[in-house]
């Protein structure tokens, strides 16, 4: 039961547009899943069904056995935290500390516990030095970490990250990689929407490809990036190094530089 399940779930916007058509997907606690696919494929709509922001018009979404139709969005969002793509859609407090402390306080946690949580998540996201600052005075990419910290401070069972690497440099991506590892250790399920195929290839074993309202493949990252048909349908490209490997005949299954070098040595060995 420690899972989120989309069971034949469809979603239609009030204007009648069907954005998700019959999705089936299970994400377990402690698991990491990347959702990829062209703009408008329905990724954001699908994750909003997972945290109760959208209720399916057909089928069901079960969060740890609770049907989202029977609970308020606030109740489900406490289990499944959603980090917005744009941090400025989420942040509204005057200091980074207040932003992170807001939801734990709202949940009426003791002040000492709130303080402990704020410091723990700030350390995890490497934003301790910003705690007293106004979130809008710090760089955009750091603001994104503030929003991740704010959700983690509520101790959700799952967290949804919408485009976490957008605008991040290598240092930021390293922090995110470490955060994903830490979340796995403490059994928090992570669902990440990403257009960053390097990030997906390096950090996720399981990838869900979406196209035209549907999940077209849910599988191992290597299988997805090796499959030309899936890449074409979902309009995604393999990671850059994989594209080079494919173009020079080293194979379609290369995910990173280490694998590229190994394969290159194998094929060029006398
Ligand atoms: N509020 C809305 N009302 C009507 N249609 C909407 C609404 N929000 C999104 N859509 C449409 O639903 C479809 C799926 O949108 P969604 O945001 O889920 O796609 P996505 O795969 O997350 O795209 P992106 O990668 O661009 O974020 C799109 O065609 C979009 O225009």
TrEMBL record:
Residues 4-237 form the ABC transporter domain. The keyword Cell membrane applies. Its main location: membrane. It holds the Pfam family ABC_tran. It is a peripheral membrane protein. GO terms for molecular function: ATP binding; ATP hydrolysis activity; ATPase-coupled transmembrane transporter activity. The keyword rRNA-binding does not apply. It is found in: Cell membrane. GO terms for cellular component: ATP-binding cassette (ABC) transporter complex. Keywords: ATP-binding, Cell membrane, Membrane, Nucleotide-binding, Translocase, Transport. InterPro entries: AAA+_ATPase, ABC_transporter-like_ATP-bd, ABC_transpr_CbiO/EcfA_su, ECF_ABC_transporter_ATP-bd, P-loop_NTPase. Belongs to the ABC transporter superfamily. PANTHER family: ENERGY-COUPLING FACTOR TRANSPORTER ATP-BINDING PROTEIN ECFA1, HEAVY METAL TRANSPORTER. This is Energy-coupling factor ABC transporter ATP-binding protein. It comes from Extibacter muris.
């Amino acid at each position: 039961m420690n899972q989120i399940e989309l069971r034949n779930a469809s979603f239609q916007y009030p204007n009648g547009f069907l954005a998700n058509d019959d999705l089936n997907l299970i994400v377990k606690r402690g698991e990491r899943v990347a959702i990829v696919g062209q703009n408008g494929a329905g990724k954001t709509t699908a994750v909003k069904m997972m945290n109760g922001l959208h209720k399916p018009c057909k089928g069901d979404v079960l969060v740890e056995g609770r049907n989202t139709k029977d609970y308020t969005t606030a109740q489900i969002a406490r289990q499944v935290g959603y980090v917005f793509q744009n941090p400025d859609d989420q942040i509204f407090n005057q200091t980074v500390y207040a932003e992170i402390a807001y939801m734990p306080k709202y949940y009426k946690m003791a002040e000492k516990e709130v303080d402990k949580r704020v410091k723990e998540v700030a350390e995890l996201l490497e934003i301790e030095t910003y705690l007293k600052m106004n979130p809008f005075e710090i760089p955009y990419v750091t603001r994104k970490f503030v929003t991740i910290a704010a959700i983690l401070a509520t101790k959700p069972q799952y967290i949804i990250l919408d485009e976490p690497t957008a605008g991040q440099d290598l240092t930021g991506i390293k922090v995110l990689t470490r955060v994903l590892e830490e979340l796995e250790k403490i059994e928090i399920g992570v669902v990440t929407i990403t257009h960053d195929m390097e990030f997906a290839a390096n950090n996720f074993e399981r990838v869900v490809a979406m196209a035209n309202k549907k999940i077209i493949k849910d599988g191992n990252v290597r299988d997805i990036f090796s499959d030309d048909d899936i890449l074409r349908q979902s309009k995604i490209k393999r990671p850059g190094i994989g594209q080079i490997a494919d173009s020079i005949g080293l194979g379609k299954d290369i995910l990173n530089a280490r694998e590229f070098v190994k394969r290159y040595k194998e094929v060029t060995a006398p």
